[in-house]
Amino acid sequence: MSVRLVILCILLLPLAATSFRLRCANCTSQSLACNHTFMSCPQGDVCGSDFSYDDLGRGYSLSGTRQCINPSVCNITSSESIQRTHSIRVFSCCYTDYCTPSTDRILQMINNTSPNGLVCPTCSSLLSNWCYTSETVQCKGEENMCFFLTIITKVVGRRAKVQVFRGCTIKSVCDQGNFTYEKGDTVHQETMVCNKAR
Ligand SMILES: *[C@@H]1O[C@H](CO)[C@@H](O)[C@H](O)[C@H]1NC(C)=O
Ligand SMILES: *[C@@H]1O[C@H](CO)[C@@H](O)[C@H](O)[C@H]1NC(C)=O
Ligand SMILES: *[C@@H]1O[C@H](CO)[C@@H](O)[C@H](O)[C@H]1NC(C)=O
Ligand SMILES: *[C@@H]1O[C@H](CO)[C@@H](O)[C@H](O)[C@H]1NC(C)=O
Ligand SMILES: *[C@@H]1O[C@H](CO)[C@@H](O)[C@H](O)[C@H]1NC(C)=O
């Protein structure tokens, strides 16, 4: 499981004179193949794939979905190594009726999961705002940044829940920066500090 949340920014696309809706694959799968039915998309959505690779230290698993998605997430890729875990998540899109989004990027990343010689401090805590570490993790594939991520989840009327993680990641994950996301009575806040891995 990728630790960072993917924010679906709502793009204000200009509405076409005729309401144009794509038809896209709709499926869930434990492989990169997805047997699918089709769905009609909400206005402005495109056909997307969202695949994850998770290695929890005892072999890896793949899972994913294809469905209509907001085009703002089309190019999101993440890769994180935390303690004994390594996870990769790749979104891809295509833009015509019944199209199949490419799996090239996820295949390329899954093909490159070996340690790359860089290391980062690593730890995680699901209960506090700090985690001490003398442990390190080997960065894998394209990972060249060390991160310290703090996730605060506040539900109105309850105590805030704080989680922290340290490990290796790729630059585009660091570039997402800090953000706050509110939905209903829940506020989700992510703060990420990154340094070059050595
Ligand atoms: C997809 O469908 C084909 C034919 O119906 C079946 O043989 C295959 O096992 C299915 N694959 C998955 C991943 O469900
Ligand atoms: C997509 O597929 C799921 C599972 O097969 C189904 O429950 C859902 O209704 C489908 N969505 C649409 C919009 O067709
Ligand atoms: C995603 O990348 C493609 C190819 O580099 C580019 O054409 C497209 O505008 C990008 N989309 C977004 C939402 O950044
Ligand atoms: C996987 O890596 C090998 C060796 O680096 C390369 O020859 C091959 O083209 C790669 N495959 C993909 C799908 O990227
Ligand atoms: C995110 O917040 C941290 C801590 O407040 C700060 O050090 C860092 O520079 C911020 N990142 C960005 C991209 O503003």
Please outline the major beta sheet: 11 strands, antiparallel
Strands, total number: 13
The low-pLDDT segments are: 10-18
Number of helices: 2
| Terminus-to-terminus distance | 25 Å
- Ligands bound, unique: 2-acetamido-2-deoxy-beta-D-glucopyranose
The average pLDDT is 90
What share of residues are in beta strands?
Answer: over 45%
Q: Decide which structural class fits the backbone.
A: mainly beta
Q: What general outline do the C-alpha atoms trace?
A: globular
Number of domains: 1
From the alpha carbons, calculate the radius of gyration and give it in angstroms: 18 Å
Query: What fraction, in percent, of the residue positions are helical?
Result: under 10%
Q: Give the H and E element order.
A: EEEEEEHEEEEEHEE
Keywords: Secreted, Signal
Subcellular location: Secreted
Signal peptide: 1-19
Protein name: Sodefrin-like factor
Q: How does this model look, in words?
A:
Keywords: Secreted, Signal. It is found in: Secreted. One of its GO terms (cellular component) is extracellular region. The protein is mostly beta strands. The protein has one domain (23-196). 6% of the residues lie in helices and 49% in strands. Strands 1, 2, 3, 4, 5, 6, 8, 10, 11, 12 and 13 form an 11-stranded antiparallel beta sheet that branches. It has a two-stranded antiparallel ribbon with strand order 7-9. A hairpin with a 5-residue loop joins β10 and β11 (161-169). The longest helix has 7 residues, at 104-110. The chain is globular, with a radius of gyration of 18 Å. The two termini are 25 Å apart. The model is unreliable at 10-18 (pLDDT under 50). Bound molecules: 2-acetamido-2-deoxy-beta-D-glucopyranose (NAG) (5 copies). One 2-acetamido-2-deoxy-beta-D-glucopyranose binds next to loops.
